[in-house]
Amino acid sequence: MRNVLSAVVAMSLSACTANGLPYPEHPASSLVVDQVAKVTIFRSNDTLLYSARTARLAMDGERAGRLATGGFRTFKVQPGSHTFVVKMWDAPGTCELVVDIQPGVEYFYEVAPRPPTVAAATPGALLLGASPSAVLFGRGVQASQSSGKQCDGAFSIVPIERAEALPKVAALRASS
After folding, report:
1. What is the spatial distance between Cα 78 and Cα 33, in angstroms, rounded to a whole number?
2. Is 174 in contact with 28 (CB distance < 8 Å)?
3. Could you tell me which of 41, 39, 103 has the C-alpha nearest to residue 75?
4. How confident is the model at residue 3 (pLDDT cuts 50, 70, 90)?
5. Is residue 108 helix, strand or coil?
6. What are 113-168's pLDDT values in tens digits?
7. In what order do the strands lie in the sheet with 71-77?
8. Where does 2-114+153-174 sit in CATH, by number?
9. How far apart are CA 83 and CA 58, in angstroms?
10. pLDDT (mean) for 32-53
11. What sections of 16-172 are H helices per DSSP?
12. What are the sequence ranges of the domains in the chain?
């Protein structure tokens, strides 16, 4: 029984891992931009927190896809002010980042789980167990914690310098 449980856990975790081309082999890695910018948003595979969940991306109010653990997405972006949003579909709160994009520049943004959202739901699970009331209590605490904040929810999104981002992204695969 333990082997079956281990196999199920491994399959569920791998199902949410990016499985596209590795960044060094992906056309986006060599994309040259002149009048636009190149934006790569990535999510490292360095924590188990929300590792079986995808982050949903939006740019300027439009869906920009999902980002799996160990994945990246690259976009050509017009110069100007843009708003990136990251969230998890069933968790309250979002993280919003407003950026000023310059033409011909390569930008990197890292999406990472936010431990405070897990901590906000923990009291309900500890007090009430895995019951529906525990889930509702946890979501209520998460929602009250995220009220009025610009970056809240399950994930954060932050700018990363190219020199720091490239070694991280080199080990990632494209998210579908």
Report:
1. 10
2. yes
3. 39
4. low
5. strand
6. 998 766 555 444 444 444 444 444 444 444 444 344 588 899 999 999 999 999 99
7. 155-160, 106-113, 37-43, 71-77, 173-174
8. 2.60.40.10
9. 8
10. 91
11. 115-128, 132-146, 162-169
12. 2-114+153-174
